[in-house]
Amino acid sequence: MRKLNFAWLLLFVLVAGCQRDKMAVPNATRQDAQLLPAGVNTIMYCDVRNVVQSALAQEVLQQIEGRMRKEMSHERYEEFKSATGFDPKRDLHSVLVGARQAAPRHENFHAIVHGQFDEQKIVAFIKQKIDSSRHEISWQEETIAGHRVYFNPKKEKIGLCFVNGNTVYVGNRDWLSGVLEGKKSNEIPQVLAEAENKIRFGDQLWLAVSLDSSLAKPAFAHELRENFPKLESVENLVFSAHVADGVKFEGQVQCTNADDSKLMVDLMRGALAAAKLQVSKDRAAVDALNSIQIDQKGEKARLHGELTPKFFDILRAQKMFIWGDDDHAI
């Protein structure tokens, strides 16, 4: 009896340890997801403020800004920040995107953005840029449920609404009308409901995609399926990551059968082997990539691992990725 009780205790400790390592999707994000159309088959979330505060992200952003300073785009970026008072690194907090890939272009994108926004300054800047480029029609403005909505003259079915100083909605007219009038589902979209327990790092960065037969319609999906016929057997995929000094990540691909799941594992291992070739001169970097696990369990293929601070030290030393010059960065 004591051995049995000890076995149950050990199992409990292991499960509890796994749960502590698993970071749930925040309740506020789940509530936002209830605003998305039920039929979306792709959802992406990023806690921008959390990610940007990480040491690695800070360094990457510094490198990117350094490159921008060499180009005219940096001047335009600084002009935008000065005129609007909006600094993405400081004022952009989170982004939740829902897409319906098989839908017409104007119906397939919906976003809920949280941060700090000065509507008057941002809109004035955009209008000034439109006027200076000699567009005959400025942004069209409408009032929906007491909120001002701005529609792009070239894509009049896509609108932007500053719900308040902390939230922005972007999407088509029908969706905006619904959410601004207070219409809300009591359930999260099916793609998230099916993926949520597979999302390991739900607090920071994740992507959930459901690949059904409707994805055969868009041109990009048709081309993918022609080049990779086995994508027909992929039902859904989930990826999540946590960024700090390094990056922890996990991805899962669910196939309809075990044979195609094995092929997906082989494909991922091939991609990993190609990555090792890029850093083959440094044994420590190769060892770091060797720590990435790719395995199969029935119809599911899984990729998980961690790129440690030491791995990024090697990239810096070898001047690879964003640490390389313009001709050799990868």
Give me the secondary-structure topology:
Layout: H1 2-21, H2 27-33, E1 42-46, H3 48-52, H4 55-68, H5 72-84, H6 88-91, E2 92-99, E3 109-115, H7 119-132, E4 140-144, E5 147-151, E6 158-164, E7 167-172, H8 173-180, H9 190-195, E8 205-210, H10 219-227, E9 234-243, E10 247-255, H11 258-278, H12 283-290, E11 293-297, E12 300-307, H13 309-317
Helix pairs in contact: 11-12, 12-13
Keywords:
330 residues, globular
Task: Describe, in plain words, how this protein is organized in 3D.
By secondary structure, the protein is an alpha+beta fold. It has a domain of 164 residues. It contains 13 helices and 12 strands. It has a 12-stranded antiparallel beta sheet, sandwiched between helices. Strand 6 and strand 7 form a beta hairpin. Helix 11 packs antiparallel against helix 12 and helix 12 runs antiparallel to helix 13. It is globular and about 55 Å long. The N and C termini lie far apart (59 Å). The N terminus is likely disordered.
Provide a short characterization of the protein structure.
The protein is of the alpha+beta class. The protein has helices at 2-21, 27-33, 48-52, 55-68, 72-84, 88-91, 119-132, 173-180, 190-195, 219-227, 258-278, 283-290, 309-317, and strands at residues 42-46, 92-99, 109-115, 140-144, 147-151, 158-164, 167-172, 205-210, 234-243, 247-255, 293-297, 300-307.
